[in-house]
């Protein structure tokens, strides 16, 4: 079973600026540099009603359904996640391709196997699990359990 070692919260200060840096790559047309590993989420602020953006890592891409799955790594207090709960109809940019999507939180039974698949495809990413506030023993069962605890969101084309 994954063990929670600490709570994580969205970055602030210089860390926030660092995490927002990829947004500017997309704005100047260089989003293609991130390939199919990252996407730009265009959403609307739930309180302000203003356009907002976030760059997120793609956990899974279902090419048959053109669905992308992302993780709310900083948990349920992430502004972009809260904004999706208020208005799930958003758009994304993958590479240079804009896509209108509808966000839907995956059930734990769906999320667990996707996390295991992600770790198998990107084993170098396992070192960042502590960044999410967890430790895992490395077993398939542990990765599935971790995926079941995290917030994974499917971005389905509209």
> Mean pLDDT, nearest integer?
93
Task: Point out poorly predicted stretches.
Answer: none
Counted beta strands: 8
Spatial ordering of strands, largest sheet: 2-3-4-8-6-5
**What is the gyration radius calculated from CA atoms?**
15 Å
Order of helices and strands: EHEEEHEEHEHE
Give the number of helices: 4
For the sheet with most strands, the description reads: 6 strands, antiparallel, barrel
Gross morphology is globular
> How far is it from the N-terminal to the C-terminal residue, by CA?
36 Å
Class computed from helices, strands and strand pairing: alpha+beta
Percentage of residues in helical conformation? 25-40%
Which strand-content bin applies to the residues?
25-35%
Can you describe what's shown?
By secondary structure, this protein is α+β, with helices and mostly antiparallel strands. Helix content is 30%, strand content 31%. It has helices at residues 13-27, 79-86, 108-121, 140-149, and strands at residues 3-4, 38-44, 51-62, 67-71, 89-94, 97-105, 134-135, 152-157. Strands 2-3-4-8-6-5 form a six-stranded antiparallel beta barrel. Strand 3 (51-62) and strand 4 (67-71) form a beta hairpin. Helix 3 (108-121) crosses helix 4. The longest helix has 15 residues, at 13-27. The chain is globular, with a radius of gyration of 15 Å. 28% of the residues are buried.
């Amino acid at each position: 079973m994954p063990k929670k070692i600490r709570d994580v919260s969205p970055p602030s200060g210089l860390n926030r600026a660092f995490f927002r840096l990829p947004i500017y790559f997309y704005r100047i047309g260089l989003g293609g540099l991130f390939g199919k590993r990252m996407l730009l989420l265009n959403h609307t602020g739930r309180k302000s009603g203003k356009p907002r953006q976030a760059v997120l890592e793609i956990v899974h891409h279902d090419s048959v359904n053109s669905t992308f799955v992302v993780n709310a790594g900083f948990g349920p207090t992430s502004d972009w996640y809260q904004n999706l709960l208020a208005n799930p109809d958003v758009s994304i940019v993958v590479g240079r391709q804009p896509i209108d999507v509808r966000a839907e939180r995956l059930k734990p039974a769906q999320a667990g196997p996707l996390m295991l698949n992600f770790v198998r495809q990107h084993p170098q990413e396992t070192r960042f699990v502590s960044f999410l506030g967890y430790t895992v023993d490395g077993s398939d069962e542990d990765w599935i359990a971790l995926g079941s605890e995290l917030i994974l969101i499917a971005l389905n084309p509209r």
